[in-house]
């Protein structure tokens, strides 16, 4: 997952994508616990994707709040 591709999404889309990734992470952890996960690096990659997503979402939120505030003189 690329930051450029995430920055093109809206805040609602990012929130929905985060829910999907968290569900995926849950499944990976479950599979890891029972020994069925073929590639344990998927857990790490999913965590990093969630962190990227949260960072982009926060940046968009900050940009929106700055745009809403009037300029002080």
Automatic annotation (TrEMBL):
Tell me a GO biological process for this protein: translation
| Annotated GO MF terms | structural constituent of ribosome
Q: Does the keyword Protein biosynthesis apply?
A: no
InterPro entries assigned to the protein according to its UniProt record, in alphabetical order: Ribosomal_protein_uL29, Ribosomal_uL29, Ribosomal_uL29_CS, Ribosomal_uL29_sf
Which keywords belong to this entry?
Ribonucleoprotein, Ribosomal protein
Instruction: Cite a single Pfam family from the UniProt record.
Output: Ribosomal_L29
Q: In its keyword annotation, does this UniProt entry include Repeat?
A: no
Family membership, please give it. Answer: Belongs to the universal ribosomal protein uL29 family.
PANTHER family membership: 60S RIBOSOMAL PROTEIN L35/50S RIBOSOMAL PROTEIN L29, LARGE RIBOSOMAL SUBUNIT PROTEIN UL29C
Q: What HAMAP family does the database record attribute to this sequence?
A: Ribosomal_uL29 (MF_00374)
- The protein's name is Large ribosomal subunit protein uL29
What species is this protein from? Nitrospira defluvii
